[in-house]
Design goal:
The N terminus is likely disordered. Helix 1 runs antiparallel to helix 2. Strands 6, 7, 8, 9, 10 and 16 form a six-stranded antiparallel sheet that branches. The protein folds into two domains: 117 residues, DNA primase, PRIM domain (Alpha-Beta Complex); 179 residues, Alpha-Beta Complex (DNA primase, PRIM domain). Strand 2 and strand 3 form a beta hairpin. The protein is globular, with a radius of gyration of 20 Å. 27% of the residues lie in helices and 25% in strands. The protein is α+β, with helices and mostly antiparallel strands.
Length: 312
């Protein structure tokens, strides 16, 4: 980054991203007050993970979690793209009840850094792409612990991956940087959201029947007891899930980090094992390419549905 007029938080700075130069505003503005992390460090983090993160965002409508004054200040979820955003940033107009909304799409590093300068700390992506918004190419199971013990999440993820294996569906794992894990199934994008969500719900019910003392599909919290809730609610039109390598708007700057199946067996694993405070640790995890074993193409649910029905 090239600094100009340093000395106050009204300074500007610039950073190159491919063919573009992105201007940063108030780079020394502290966004994580407990940790002293500045906007420049947030932008620097996204600059370093862009090669792995942008492919996970490309082509998808985004919901952007923005905190212009940092943690402890105003926080809002941005769906509609402001008119002042540069023309080179891609937009995607999608339908909503009673009209349309124009989401931002992050197709390149310059867009990622521009959005970071807008104090977008966390990127939430659609499970479908802008060209076919009604047909998801990702299915997500959200596993949050019922209490402080993360072992319940690790065990549920192992059991879920086992079931998905029976159904012929490869799965990818990711710590959320918040409380739990996401188990993600790449799809071929040919099924609509109702079909995908119905499949996810039925799979969750099969797993809950196998482990009734530990797992549940009960939506109401008071009905769950101390069992882990197999959450499939994200599998719906216009719903989002935190993007891989995104930081979270929490003290310490925890990161949503892809992991391997082997790392799932690490008793030290938590939802916040990787943080922006330890960027080198995040980069080491990124360089290990934890999702390199995932298939290049998503799977159809047709065969998996027949196998699932046979288990019910």
């Amino acid at each position: 980054m090239n600094a100009t007029d340093r000395g106050t938080d009204t300074d500007t700075d610039t950073v190159r991203a491919g063919r573009r130069t992105v201007r940063l505003h108030r780079p020394e503005k502290v966004l994580f007050p407990d940790d002293g992390l500045t906007k420049a460090e947030v932008v620097g983090y996204y600059r370093r993970v862009a090669a792995a993160m942008v492919p996970q965002l490309r082509g998808r409508p985004l919901m952007l979690e923005r905190l212009p004054e940092g943690l402890g200040g105003p926080q809002f979820m941005q769906k509609d793209t402001p008119g002042h955003y540069p023309d080179w940033i891609r937009r995607a107009e999608v339908t909503k009840e009673g009209g349309t909304v124009t989401h931002t799409v992050c197709d390149d590093k310059a867009t990622l850094l521009f959005l970071a300068d807008q104090a977008c700390l966390t990127f939430h992506r659609w499970l479908s792409r802008a060209g076919r918004p009604d047909h998801p190419d990702r299915l997500v199971f959200d596993l949050d612990p019922p209490g402080p013990d993360f072992e319940a999440v690790r065990e549920a993820a192992r059991q879920l991956c086992g079931l998905l294996g029976e159904l012929g569906l490869p799965a990818a794992l990711m710590t959320t940087g918040s409380k739990g894990l996401h188990v993600i199934v790449p799809l071929d994008g040919k099924s609509d959201f109702d079909t995908v969500r119905g499949f996810a719900q039925d799979a969750a019910e099969v797993l809950a029947v196998r482990h009734p003392d530990r797992l549940t599909t009960a939506v109401r919290k008071k009905s769950r007891g101390d069992r882990l809730y197999l959450d499939v609610q994200r599998n719906a039109y216009a719903q989002t899930a935190v993007a891989p390598w995104s930081m979270r708007a929490k003290p310490g700057g925890p990161v949503a980090a892809p992991i391997t199946r082997q790392q799932l067996d690490d008793p030290q694993l938590t939802a916040q094992s990787w943080t922006v405070k330890d960027v080198e640790g995040v980069l080491e995890q990124m360089a290990a390419r934890p999702w390199s074993g995932a298939p290049a193409r998503g799977r159809s649910l047709r065969t998996a549905r027949r196998r699932l029905d046979a288990l019910r």
